[in-house]
Design a protein that fits this description.
The protein is α/β, with parallel strands linked by helices. It is 29% helix and 19% strand. Keywords: NAD, Oxidoreductase.
Length: 323
C-alpha cells in the first residue's frame, strides 16, 4: 500500500528515526511518500492508496481527486472534512476526518476568546495603545447592575454543535461557574450536559449570556447564525465562533454588534480566508478576530492515520468515516 503524507506536518507512521523521507515504511511495510501539499502530484504519487491531507491548497486537492485514480482513503487531519468533500473525489474513495485531533487546542482557544470578550480585553487593549488608563470598564465590572456581565460565574453558556470539542470545553466552563447547555440536532444528554434540539432552542437563546459555535460547514449549516438567531439572543450576549465561517451571516453579525444586541463577538473563522483588507469585519465594534488558529496543532494524528491504514488492511471499520 502506498501512503502519501503532506509536507505540512511531521508524521511518524513507522516510529522510525527518519519517518519523513520518501520510501520510508509504515508498520505493514507500506510505502510512505512525502508530497508537497501546495503543488500538483508527481508521477510516482499516482498509484497511491491513501492520501493524508493537511493544509493542502484547493488546487492540490482537485489535482488529487482528478489524477490519483487508485485512492481508497483520503484522511484529512482537519476536524471538518469540508475541503476534502469539496475537492470532488470519487464516491468509491472513503473520506475520514480528523475529529478529536483538535479537541484540546480548539477548546483552549475558545476559552481564551470567551474570556477576552467577557472581560472586554478588546477595549482594554485599545486603551493601552492610546496610553489611557481605562476606568470605564473597571466601573462597569464593579457596578451592581452590570457586574454580572463580566464573569462566567452564573452565566448561561450555550455551545452550538455539541461534539468532542464541546465535551472538552464544557467542563472547564462549568468549573468557572457557568451553566453549560448544548445545541445539537436532537435533545438529550451528551457528555453529562443537557443538549436541546436546534429547532427548540428559542427559549435557551433568550437567556444565553455567551453563545459559542463549534458548527462544521455544510449546506445545512450555512448562515445558521443570522439576524433571526442573533435577535433571539438575550440582549447584550456574546458570540464566539471557533467552528466555520460559512455558518455566520457576517452582515447580520455586524448589525447586531452596531445595534448593541450583541455586546461583543470573537471570531477565529470567517467566510473568506484570509480575511480581505476591505472586509467590514475589521472595523466592526467590539469584535475580536484571530486568523483561524484555534486548531492547527492536531494531537495524535499519526496514531489516527496508523489506525485507519490498519483498518484498510484488515477490513475493519474506519475511524471518523464521513458519510
Amino acid at each position: 500500500m502506498i501512503i502519501l503524507l503532506p509536507n505540512t506536518i511531521d508524521l511518524d507512521l513507522a516510529n522510525s528515526s527518519n519517518p519523513s523521507i520518501a520510501g520510508a515504511t509504515a508498520p505493514n511495510d507500506d510505502t510512505v511518500i512525502v508530497y508537497d501539499a501546495k503543488r500538483p502530484f508527481a508521477d510516482e504519487h499516482l498509484a497511491a492508496d491513501v492520501l493524508v491531507v493537511w493544509q493542502n491548497t484547493p488546487e492540490n486537492l482537485h489535482d488529487a481527486a482528478t489524477r490519483l485514480s487508485q485512492l481508497r482513503l483520503v484522511q484529512t487531519l482537519a476536524a471538518g472534512p469540508d475541503a476534502a468533500l469539496a475537492a470532488g473525489f470519487r464516491d468509491t474513495v472513503a473520506i475520514a476526518s480528523g475529529r478529536s485531533l483538535h479537541d484540546g487546542p480548539v477548546a483552549e482557544h475558545a476559552l481564551a476568546l470567551i474570556l477576552a470578550a467577557v472581560r472586554s480585553l478588546d477595549e482594554l487593549l485599545e486603551s493601552q495603545r492610546e496610553h489611557e488608563w481605562n476606568t470605564a470598564v473597571n466601573t462597569a465590572q464593579v457596578a451592581r447592575a452590570t457586574s454580572g456581565r463580566y464573569t462566567l460565574d452564573r452565566a448561561q453558556v450555550t455551545i452550538w454543535g455539541f461534539g468532542s470539542i464541546a465535551a472538552t470545553l464544557a467542563p472547564v466552563l462549568r468549573m468557572l461557574g457557568a451553566t453549560v447547555t448544548g445545541v445539537a440536532s436532537t435533545t438529550g444528554i451528551r457528555h453529562g450536559f443537557d443538549v436541546v434540539a436546534a429547532s427548540d432552542a428559542t427559549e435557551l437563546l433568550a437567556r444565553t449570556d455567551v453563545l459559542v459555535s463549534v458548527l462544521p460547514a455544510s449546506p445545512e449549516t450555512t448562515d445558521t447564525f443570522g439576524a433571526a438567531l442573533f435577535g433571539a439572543l438575550k440582549p447584550g450576549a456574546i458570540f464566539v465562533n471557533v467552528g466555520r465561517g460559512a455558518t455566520v451571516d457576517e452582515a447580520a453579525l455586524i448589525d447586531a454588534l452596531e445595534s448593541g444586541q450583541l455586546r461583543s463577538a470573537a471570531l477565529d473563522v470567517t467566510k473568506v480566508e484570509p480575511l480581505p483588507a476591505e472586509s467590514a469585519l475589521w472595523d466592526a465594534p467590539h469584535l475580536i478576530l484571530t486568523p483561524h488558529i484555534a486548531g492547527n496543532r492536531p494531537q495524535g494524528a499519526a496514531g489516527l492515520v496508523r489506525a485507519n491504514v490498519e483498518a484498510l488492511h484488515t477490513g475493519a471499520a474506519l475511524t471518523n468515516l464521513v458519510s
